[in-house]
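Thread title: Can someone regenerate the structure for this chain?

I was given the following input by a collaborator and told the matching structure tokens would be attached. They weren't. Posting the sequence so someone can regenerate them.
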Amino acid sequence: MSAAPLPSLVPVLERLRSLHATRGGQPADVAVAQQAALDRLLGLGLPTTRDEPWKYTNLRRFESRTLALPEAVTAVDAGLEARLPTSDGWQRIVFVNGHHAPARSSALVAGTGVQIRLLASVFRDAPQEAVALLGSEGVSTSARFDLLNQAFVEDGLVIDVAPGTELAQPLYLVFESSGSGRATLVTPRVIVHVGAHAKVTLIEHHVSSERAEHAVVAVTRLLLADGSHVEHYRLRQEGSQVIHFGSAAAEVGRSARYVSHTLSLGGALSRLDLAVRLVGNDASCELNGVFLADGTQHTDTHSCIEHVVPQTRSSQDYRGLADGKGRGVFNGKVVVHKDAQKTDAKQSSRNLLLSNTAEIDTRPELEIYADDVKCSHGATTGQLDPTALFYLRSRGIAEDEARGLLALAFVETVLKDMGVQPVRDHISGIFRRYFLNPKALSP
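Best answer:
Regenerated them for you:
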């Protein structure tokens, strides 16, 4: 970690300090906790390329932004509405620029066994609980943006699912960033507690207009009790000027199962940190994802799975694509603790370069402190298979279309594991439009 903020980062830290001073209206306990988070961040500074987890990701695009606090937006952006998947029958909750949009959301009741509260209401009505929900993150470089979220968060959701509850339809959380003529700091926070043997599908969708220049710092925390099952979709579909720092962490109890599907599209600069702790025997997790870095976009995904106790299982399958001058980063880490015997962990990172100027950096890591385990990892980065391309061309398919079909097949391998059909169709449609556009792929 950096011993002190670098001189180049001091101005952005001072701007954050000044911006925080303009806030008001929070209960005293919450205000104190948020000020403490900001002070901690200012003391630690933001991560730099000297920090190993940020070796490939420079924050200069974030440093150059002068951010304002978000304002409530009442107008509906029809363009954004058209970019959402079909959600008939789903419990849908919409936030625009970090503020709850009740007119576009379902009532905050998902049925027997589920309680959904706005974080802003918890701040107001139960400040001591709010302070506990904000939590106290570590000092790792990835946690710096968690501290930033703690310091500025104004709203979000607290979701409690009672033991034994099985939701027939997904909970669909939409976070829109709407162009407002200025760059704003948007800091949603979602806390999900899933009771024993409950089953939930959670869809978290971050979407923005092309005009938006926001910096989004989003945090999601999940706690899975024994025997529960959560399928978590995290879709990021943002305009080319948005900067996004996301964090999702799950603690998985005995015989519980956590399945994560992530999609990263768009944005000038994005970073996603996924952390899963398997803390109960027979706990398992599956992390699957796809990212596409196009133009000059920079997309970074870091995952860390900790096997804390014996007889736990994990798998990771990530596919990355880079086009134009885009750059992608994937770092997948598995830590097997000393007592975590009988661990079974697999990870795979496969990447495709669609132009000669694109770049993808991938790094699988294993830290194993037990001796009776089965762990494997693999990583590949390459270009489209010339033999397969020749085969398609020999069947009369134009080169651009042939390249698009091969790239689409590369992505579909991961998409097929998504259990929610409307989400799978939505994402598949995005890639089909991109890959099968004759002008989309560069040689």
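The chain has two domains: 7-280, 385-443.
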